[in-house]
Amino acid sequence: MPEALPPFDSILFVSFGGPEGMDDVMPFLENVLRGKNVPRERMLAVAEHYRRFDGVSPINQQNRALIAALRTELDGLGLELPVYWGNRNWQPLLPDVLRQMRDDGRQRG
Question: One digit per residue, pLDDT tens: the chain, 109 residues?
Fold first, then answer.
């Protein structure tokens, strides 16, 4: 009888994503609002809110911290699972990460 495959060969961490500087804010908001009928003036007003934080959303750093903590836990348990991170609206974008997982031979994340 063939050996059973482990239930997972990787972990995929999925998030919303956020800008990491003022140059990212408008492209990020365009991704978020794509296909929605939001007036440009409203998008510009929201972009101004990001200026208070130099265009940096805290979510990416929070994600990095969570992934690092997860990596520490996995290592402590002796689990050698790669952890991938993909976002809906900002880099790293989920479709790109899914392609990378496929290219890395991962099928059960």
Answer: 556 656 889 999 999 999 999 999 999 999 999 999 999 999 999 999 999 999 999 999 999 999 999 999 999 999 999 999 999 999 999 999 999 999 999 999 8
**Concatenated DSSP letters for 7-53?**
S-S-EEEEE----BSHHHHHHHHHHHHTTS---HHHHHHHHHHHHTT
Going by C-alpha positions, the residue among 86, 81, 85 that lies closest to residue 106 is 81
Pick from 41, 45, 46, 51: which is nearest to 21 by CA? 51
Instruction: Name residue 56's amino acid.
Output: V
According to DSSP, the β-strands at 83-87 and 11-15 are parallel
Tokens representing 35? 């296909």
